[in-house]
Amino acid sequence: EKFVAPYLFLKSEIDPDQPAESMSLFTSGELASAASSVTVDDLDFSEFDHFLIHLHNFQPSTDGADLRFVFRNSGSDQMGTYYRAGISARFGAASSADGGLSTSNYGLIQNTMGNDATEGLQACTLKLWPNVGGSRQIMDGHFKIGHQNASHYSLDYDFWYPNSVQSDGIRFYVSSGNIKAGAIWKFWGIKG
Question: Model's pTM, two decimal places?
Fold first, then answer.
């Protein structure tokens, strides 16, 4: 059952002629034990304009593992080239631009994450948009990462996948081992 949150994105404070948006909790969960991936399917873009995704405490069981995702359609992973661009900022060091990473059959969120208590994906907010012009799937997000060897990063990334069909799911996984117990996810549908 979907819960309609008492949340309104107050665009009216910016532009009084714009209607407020509504946000409904679509699904949420927490890993009770380690698992190879977290998958959410049946995202309905006919019901919602886009999805807001929160991930918290995604730690790999294997030190140095990558955190990846893949879009899905009708219960199957969507294969092909995924692209990423954005900015990576290490706390206590200079920022660096990430102008054009491409990967085959997955999107790379972060490579070589640590598996200690202060490492891994600490928190992130993602926006998953509907397919654009029948040619690409877009997602953007902000991440707090505990990298291997206790370096901490703040990341802003855009992801792009050339895709003629609407993705209706997403799977998050690590390149080796499992995601530790305690990983939390929440998906909200945004309408308006």
Answer: 0.84
